Amino acid sequence: ASAAETEEVLKQITAEYEIDHLVNNAGKTTSSLLTETSIKEFDEILQINMRTPMQCVQACLPAMLRKGRGRIVNISSRAALGMIRRTAYAGAKSGLLGMTRTWALELGAQGVNVNAVAPGPVATELYLQNNPMTPEARANFASRIPLKRVGTPEEIAGAVTFFLSSDADYVTGQVLYVCGGLSIGATPT
């Protein structure tokens, strides 16, 4: 959340490495209704989910431009489409999608492709911590996902790997929802 500390770390990294592939995978969520969302919470979520990716791109972009080639993948969320108890997070992740498209327009002619992966529910420690459920509730939730299960980190990594690869040379400004179909809606129970 600290712009100054982020800048310092980025200076160290870019002094040592010529970055040509960047995955902005930082994120923080909350579980607050609109009426419970404080300005402090909102600002922190925006800083981590929007300002930090912008700082990372700004720091790494000079090397990409020197090479005339680069890849940027922003990790958004299916929540960008709307999700109860995620006012700040959904706003920040949808804002990141807008920045993804804008950067694709600004950087494409210079050889830099910018895309986003928007995961749905993925069985990580953070997901389990932020979404406490009984085994029965978890099974009920999974039954509403069109693919009838929660995703794995490896499935998200596969989508990111595609965008970083030469297979995606003609792809920029796109969002790939890796969400088991939740971006098209929940199935009836």
In short:
With 189 residues, the protein is an alpha/beta fold. It is built from six helices and four strands.
Any chance you could write out the topology, listing elements then pairs?
Layout: H1 3-16, E1 21-24, H2 39-67, E2 70-75, H3 87-107, E3 112-119, H4 125-130, H5 135-144, H6 153-164, E4 175-178
Parallel strand pairs: 1-2, 2-3, 3-4
Helix pairs in contact: 1-2, 2-3
Structural class: alpha/beta
Q: Output the strand order for the largest sheet.
A: 1-2-3-4
| β-sheet strand percentage | 5-15%
Query: Residue share in helices?
Result: 40-55%
Major β-sheet profile: 4 strands, parallel
Radius of gyration: 17 Å
Tally of strands = 4
Query: In terms of per-residue confidence, which ranges show pLDDT below 50 for 5 or more consecutive residues?
Result: none
Large-scale geometry: globular
Span between termini: 40 Å
Total helical elements: 6
Global mean pLDDT: 94
Return the string of H and E elements. Answer: HEHEHEHHHE
